[in-house]
DNA sequence: TTTTGAGTTGTTCGA
DNA sequence: GTCGAACAACTCAAA
């Protein structure tokens, strides 16, 4: 009997296109393992919404493995020493898909020589496409050009037909005992209306999107319409591989039609390699001068933002969509995050922490890149004078107000002309809509013009 | 080494 | 209402 092969699942909760699972199955009997490790990642342990997703995704993976003849073993604790000890006890090899988050590198080092790493998190492997002089790209466009030269990625591997479960596998924990789901209160009550965690749900989401690729470039900025892929949580947890997404989308449309979406998958690679190169970036601005930025310690403003009570309808709609569904449309993420850091001057890390805890697709690389980008302190950051104007953004991307009406129902009866700026409504319009500013819906926490001037002044100080 | 062109997602102002 | 220019200076990547 050959040695047992431990397959350590982490952010690759799938059985298709899983190089580590395939290699293990070919080498002997298999012990699939998932470790709930809240220790190694420290502050960036899986957040609350992510835990809801993780619960269901682990259950789905266990069922998929069961149908192949294996049992997913669940353990809790610091993964490195725990896996190393189990491998020693069983005389096992360990297989895993290489991840590029800083905590993953620590786990991999702690498991040590028993571990064989396989590619699979990113489109290219290693994730860092390099410049002609061997350096890392810090600007997306040249990165994307170089990445495209490596495409297509390797074709997805089929799932193993049959697994032989290793002898002497520990019983492990019960998923229900991990307490990943919220109870009092159950703030995730609506999540299941919007999401189907797990590989099957991910593939169904991908199937649906292949019919929408052609309209993606035009429709992706309209938050009222379901025209984005909604693949982000499935990609974060690796329920479908980036390579499979690439192949399916590329097959669904002509190259120039598919490119706007494939670029976004390229951004995911860019974010992952950026975090790999800059492991402190979740906590530290990449541009050192931003350490001097005069953040305001505005706990009331932060709370208004978190609860969707800023008085700016597009911002509030986004923040409430996030709270209710664990997700926010990408266009609105930009508007809402810009509002926090530019209009309120709150430290971008307070925003990234909130997103980390509330997004079902919370991903350390994407979250970090996004917040540093909007702040202007990161790789390929936007110019400092680019301050989103929430009313103009709302009118441009939600012209009928359908998105605001859905998530901010107390404004639903306002006419289109003022739905994004209720303070511009006439007394009669307000009365007919049943809106009393300051009572049924808040006054603006800041006025745009004044907030913009204040932000420009604060940012201007950095250049002195 | 130096030079050159370019750089996800925008807003405001004045003609 | 529409349009183009200005908004800093810097860094990156390649020639």
Describe the structure.
The chain has 464 residues and is mainly alpha-helical. The protein is 46% helix and 5% strand. The longest helix has 23 residues, at 255-277. The protein has 20 helices and five strands. Helix 5 crosses helix 11. A five-stranded parallel β-sheet has the order 3-2-1-4-5, with helices on both faces. The model has no long low-confidence stretch (mean pLDDT 95). It has helices at 19-27, 48-68, 79-90, 102-111, 140-148, 191-194, 199-210, 216-219, 232-236, 242-252, 255-277, 299-307, 313-325, 330-343, 348-358, 364-375, 390-397, 402-407, 427-433, 448-461; strands at residues 5-9, 30-36, 73-76, 93-97, 115-118. The chain starts with a strand and ends with a helix. It is globular and about 80 Å long. Helix 2 (48-68) links the parallel strand 2 and strand 3 (73-76). It has three domains: 5-120, HUPs (Rossmann fold, 3-Layer(aba) Sandwich); 122-153 and 198-277, Serine Threonine Protein Phosphatase 5, Tetratricopeptide repeat; 288-461, Orthogonal Bundle (DNA Cyclobutane Dipyrimidine Photolyase, subunit A, domain 3), CATH 1.10.579. The protein binds a DNA duplex (15 and 15 nucleotides) through residues 131-133, 135, 137-142, 221, 263, 267, 330-331, 334, 338, 373, 380, 382-389, 392-393, 452, 456, 460, 463.
What is the correct CATH architecture of the largest domain? Orthogonal Bundle
Major sheet attributes? 5 strands, parallel
The percentage helix is: 40-55%
Low-pLDDT residue spans: none
CATH homology-level superfamily of the largest domain: DNA Cyclobutane Dipyrimidine Photolyase, subunit A, domain 3
Number of helices: 20
Question: Could you say how many structural domains there are in total?
Answer: 3
């Amino acid at each position: 009997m050959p040695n047992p092969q431990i397959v350590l699942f982490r952010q690759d909760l799938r059985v298709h296109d899983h190089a580590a699972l395939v290699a293990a199955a070919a080498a002997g009997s298999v012990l699939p393992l998932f470790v709930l490790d809240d220790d190694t990642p420290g502050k960036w342990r899986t957040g609350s919404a992510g835990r809801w997703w993780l619960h269901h995704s682990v259950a789905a993976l266990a069922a998929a493995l069961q149908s192949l003849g294996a049992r997913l073993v669940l353990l809790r604790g610091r993964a490195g020493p725990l896996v190393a000890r189990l491998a020693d006890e069983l005389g096992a090899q360990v297989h895993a898909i290489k991840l590029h988050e800083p905590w993953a590198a620590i786990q991999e080092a702690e498991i040590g020589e028993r571990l064989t790493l396989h590619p699979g998190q990113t489109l290219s492997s290693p994730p860092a496409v390099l410049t002609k002089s061997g350096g890392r790209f810090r600007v997306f466009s040249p990165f994307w050009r170089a990445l495209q030269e490596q495409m297509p990625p390797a074709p997805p591997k089929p799932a193993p037909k049959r697994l032989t479960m290793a002898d002497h596998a520990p019983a492990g924990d019960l998923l229900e005992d991990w307490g990943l789901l919220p109870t009092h209160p159950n703030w995730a009550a609506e999540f299941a209306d919007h999401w189907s965690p797990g590989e099957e749900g991910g593939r169904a989401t991908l199937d649906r999107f292949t019919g929408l690729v052609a309209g993606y470039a035009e429709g992706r900025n309209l938050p009222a319409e379901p025209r984005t892929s909604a693949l982000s949580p499935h990609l974060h947890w690796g329920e479908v591989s980036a390579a499979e997404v690439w192949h399916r989308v590329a097959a669904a449309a002509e190259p120039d039609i598919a490119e706007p979406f494939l670029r976004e998958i390229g951004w995911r690679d860019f974010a992952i390699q950026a975090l790999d190169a800059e492991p402190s970036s979740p906590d530290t601005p990449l541009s050192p001068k931003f350490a001097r930025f005069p953040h305001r310690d505005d706990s009331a403003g932060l709370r208004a933002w978190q609860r969707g009570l800023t008085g700016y309808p597009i911002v509030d709609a986004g923040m409430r969509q996030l709270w209710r569904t664990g997700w926010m449309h990408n266009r609105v993420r930009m508007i809402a995050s810009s509002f926090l850091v530019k209009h309120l001057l709150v430290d971008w890390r307070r925003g990234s922490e909130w997103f980390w805890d509330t997004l079902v697709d919370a991903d350390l690389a994407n979250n970090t890149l996004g917040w540093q980008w909007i702040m202007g302190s990161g790789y390929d950051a936007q110019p400092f004078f680019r301050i989103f104007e929430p009313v103009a953004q709302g009118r441009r991307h939600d012209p009928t107000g359908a998105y605001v009406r859905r998530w901010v129902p107390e404004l639903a009866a306002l006419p289109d002309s003022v739905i994004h700026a209720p303070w511009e409504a006439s007394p009669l319009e307000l009365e007919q809509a049943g809106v009393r500013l300051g009572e049924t819906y808040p006054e603006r926490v800041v006025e745009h013009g004044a907030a913009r001037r204040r932000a420009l002044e604060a940012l201007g100080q950095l250049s002195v």
